[in-house]
Structure formats: structure tokens, C-alpha cells
């Protein structure tokens, strides 16, 4: 299992070289490269100039850190065909970049419109039919996660969509700060992880509040509905309502940390990934980032 740090909270604060060195200083060996304005910006075509690549490779060589995965967010679910076609072009470019950088995993979202679920569902399957042969050809494992304010927010339904392709090049991401959206506020982490089963290849660790509970979040004006305003957080573990003891116990029961290391397991994309996905409080990261890594090591690797 690779323990990675999502560098979103750093990319906004510092150059790429400093970002890599900071992750190394916190004791991480792997970076999950979330959308970055010079590399893989949200919704737009990937960039990654020669100079940017040289800067990144230099920092990786200096620190021994590796990129476990890219995160990309493209409108491959439309809702318009023009948006979908742009997104497919973006996908083809990011796959090229990933292969060049030796990165075998791309973590992504469905990226649709909750108010146009039928159209976005069809658009996503159309994009998958076009792109899956490319993922398989290049040996890339693409991992799908639900996200708040998407055309599908539910854990089980998204798992079923992933499983329907029966491809070892597709995995499922369980994002703990999104979990209360995944089952409409129940927070039954054991069921959700077990339902993902063999397709569970990636877990994002961060805490959040249960948005269905009265006054956990206060949104104004108060009559806004769930399709008008969606809130969640990426707090340090223990600061919100997520059942992390249940998550860690279930992952141990599933042997998540060792699953891809087994001789008979599919090797596409390499080992499973546990990623610390803390945002919003860069001033706390010097304490919180190492503490999160140490807890994951202790809970899942017995260190």
C-alpha cells in the first residue's frame, strides 16, 4: 500500500519544487497530484511544459518522493456533447503525461450535473466506452469517486457503475469526507467499504461533519435546497463526525494494505493507495500531515 499526500493545500502556497520537498519533510514517499494550474487544471486541457516537468523531476530526484497518482476533474459527463468531447481530449493528454512520468493511477470524479442526471449518466458511459481501451492499452488504473453535487452521489450506485465494466483498469475511490453524501447521512462506513469490495483501490482520509444533522452547517438563505448548495469539509481525522475506527477496522478485515501485493492480484496500477486529503488549514499541516501518516501506518501497517 502506498501512503500519499494530496498536495492541493500546498500547491496554492508554494512552487512545485518546494511542494515536493515539503511532502518529503513530512515523511511521505508519495504525492497524489491534485489539479494544479501548471499541470492538470480543473476542467481545462492539461499543460505541463518542459520547464515544469524538469522542475518536478528535479525535486522528485532530490527527495526520493514519487507520484502515486494524478487527480483530474473533467466534464466527461457533459451535460453537453461539446463539453464531453473537450473532456475526452483532456483525458487523452493526461494519460500521455502520466505514462511519460511513470504514473499508473489517475483518480477522478464523475463530474456531472445533479440536475441533469439522465443525460450525464449516458454521457459518462459514452466517454468510458471511448476511453477504456486507451486506459487498458497504456496500463493505467482509473479510479472513480462520487463527489458532492454530482449526478450520482451514492456509494453503492457508483460502485455498480464501476463494476459493470468488469475491467481491472477501473477502481473505486472511497473518499471519507464525502461519505455522508454516499449514503444520505447514515455514515455506515463498514457497509460502503464492503460493498466496494475488490474494486476498492484507493481511500481518501479526511474528516467532515454530517451535513444532514441540524446546524452542523448553516447555509444562508436557509431555504436553499440540497440541489442549490452543497457543503462538506476536509478536516483532520477526529475533528468531525466520520467513523474512522470503523473505517480502519473494515480496511484491516479487507486486507486493503496488502491486497495488490498478493501474487494472484491484478497488477494494473500497482498497490492500493491511502491518501491524506486535508484542505483548508495550511497553518496546521506541519502537525496534522505527519500525524495522519503515522496513524495510517499504525492502523493499517502495524507500525
Order of strands across the widest beta sheet? 1-2-3-4-5-6-7-8
Beta-strand percentage range: 5-15%
Contiguous low-pLDDT stretches (5 residues minimum) are none
- Gyration radius, rounded: 18 Å
Rounded average pLDDT: 93
CATH architecture: Alpha-Beta Barrel
- Secondary-structure content class: alpha/beta
How much helicity do the residues have?
Answer: 25-40%
Task: Give a short overview.
The chain has 303 residues and is α/β, with parallel strands linked by helices. The protein is 39% helix and 14% strand.
Written overview of the protein:
With about 300 residues, the chain is an alpha/beta fold. It has one domain (about 1-300): TIM Barrel, CATH 3.20.20. Helices cover about 40% and strands about 15% of the residues. Strand 3, helix 4 and strand 4 (about 105-110) form a beta-alpha-beta unit. Helix 2 (about 15-25) packs parallel to helix 3 and helix 8 packs parallel to helix 9 (about 245-255). The chain is globular and about 50 Å long.
Amino acid at each position: 500500500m502506498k501512503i500519499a499526500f494530496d498536495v492541493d493545500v500546498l500547491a496554492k502556497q508554494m512552487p512545485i519544487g518546494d511542494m515536493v520537498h515539503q511532502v518529503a519533510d513530512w515523511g511521505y514517499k508519495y504525492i497524489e497530484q491534485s489539479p494544479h494550474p501548471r499541470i492538470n487544471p480543473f476542467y481545462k486541457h492539461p499543460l505541463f511544459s518542459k520547464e515544469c516537468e524538469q522542475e518536478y523531476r528535479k525535486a522528485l530526484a532530490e527527495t526520493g518522493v514519487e507520484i502515486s497518482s494524478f487527480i483530474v476533474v473533467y466534464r466527461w459527463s457533459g451535460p453537453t456533447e461539446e463539453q464531453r468531447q473537450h473532456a475526452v481530449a483532456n483525458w487523452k493528454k493526461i494519460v500521455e503525461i502520466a505514462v511519460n512520468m511513470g504514473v499508473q493511477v489517475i483518480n477522478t470524479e464523475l463530474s456531472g450535473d445533479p440536475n441533469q442526471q439522465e443525460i450525464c449518466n449516458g454521457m459518462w458511459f459514452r466517454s468510458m466506452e471511448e476511453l477504456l481501451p486507451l486506459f487498458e492499452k497504456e496500463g493505467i488504473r482509473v479510479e472513480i469517486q462520487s463527489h458532492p453535487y454530482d449526478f450520482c452521489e451514492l456509494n453503492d450506485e457508483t460502485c455498480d457503475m464501476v463494476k459493470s465494466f468488469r475491467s481491472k483498469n477501473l477502481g473505486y475511490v472511497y473518499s471519507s469526507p464525502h461519505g455522508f453524501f454516499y449514503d444520505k447521512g447514515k455514515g455506515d462506513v463498514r457497509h460502503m467499504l464492503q460493498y466496494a469490495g475488490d474494486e476498492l483501490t484507493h481511500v481518501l482520509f479526511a474528516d467532515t461533519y454530517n451535513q444532514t444533522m441540524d446546524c452542523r452547517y448553516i447555509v444562508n438563505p436557509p431555504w436553499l435546497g440540497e440541489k442549490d448548495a452543497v457543503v462538506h469539509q476536509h478536516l483532520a481525522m477526529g475533528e468531525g463526525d466520520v467513523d474512522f475506527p470503523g473505517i480502519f477496522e473494515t480496511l484491516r478485515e479487507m486486507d486493503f494494505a496488502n491486497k495488490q501485493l498478493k501474487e494472484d492480484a491484478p497488477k494494473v496500477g500497482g498497490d492500493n493507495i491511502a491518501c491524506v486529503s486535508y484542505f483548508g488549514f495550511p497553518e496546521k499541516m506541519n502537525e496534522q500531515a505527519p500525524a495522519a501518516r503515522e496513524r495510517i501506518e499504525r492502523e493499517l501497517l502495524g507500525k
